What does this fold into?
Amino acid sequence: MILARNLSIINALTGIRFLVAMLVFLFHFGAAFSERVGAPQFVSTFLHNGKIGVSMFFVLSGFILTFTYKKVFAAKFNFKVFFLARFARIYPVYILALIIMLPILPKALDCLSALRVLFMMQSWTSPYSSFGGTWVMQAWSLSVELFFYLCFPMLFSLIRKSGVRILLLGLLTTSLFIVVVGTPWIDPGIDFIPLFSKDFTPILPILRLPEFIFGMLLCKLMFAYPKLGDMLAGLKFFTLTFLSIVVLLSFAETVQLKSVATLLFGILIIQLSYGKNQIVRILSTKQMMLLGGSSYSLYMIQGPVREWFYWIVSNEILSKTASMFLNPITAIFFSIMIFIYYEQPTRKLLMRFVRN
It folds into this structure.
């Protein structure tokens, strides 16, 4: 099968972004609540494992960037346009989240710390340090993503020239690293990392880089073996992959076994990329496109919104019960508004500047 459905692919992968964002969202808003109300253990376990959505975003980012820039690299790569496009994609919402959080910061930041956050370098430190969660906690992953963007041109140049053996070796190596080290569970302030001592541990973005590379290699594999989709894209195989992820996140007990869900998500991306089943059509609807488009805003503002509600409750402006219901509704509503009236217009304005 020749991959001629570029728009369909991007639409389906945009739709799945909302479901991935909801994993992280439910981790923050639902995990502790599920324990308080006595939900079944597998439900609480699934919600607590929702943080793996960050890992899925890293894989998806590597895949989509490789897919988007495949033809560009075949001609001439414009570094200026690439980096400005990435800036227009992530920084406006990033800075907005920082501004929303600024009035209720628990303590003032020193100048150097503030600059590191503003320049998205807060995670460029030891993963044992909690500094990555400074200012806006979720922003640590954007700091890691910036590192990926800086590495992308060189990585893609190598991957584009790689043969079949190197491609398969790369997939095997990154898969093993992700599972054995449990990279999806490495975030700022972690206590222990398999195979690494505290004295010889790379900075956090390097440890998470295999997830991004894994996504890039999957895209290369998809183009190298287009018939792969014919075998995997049917509804039965898609359902099997999806349910396997749910089961792992609900019942797996070790970080290694839970990390297999990241690899299965990579297979899910390939299945979605061929646009052959009803799930793809659902994910490509206008409603899912809107929710998927607003997923980045939802990811970034959920923390500040949650902290504002804590402040409102602590000042007895609103009851804790009312806050529990209004908090997630407010985050989702404002993420959609930000996407429509701020994120998209700002991105278009900045890209117009780039083209000129």
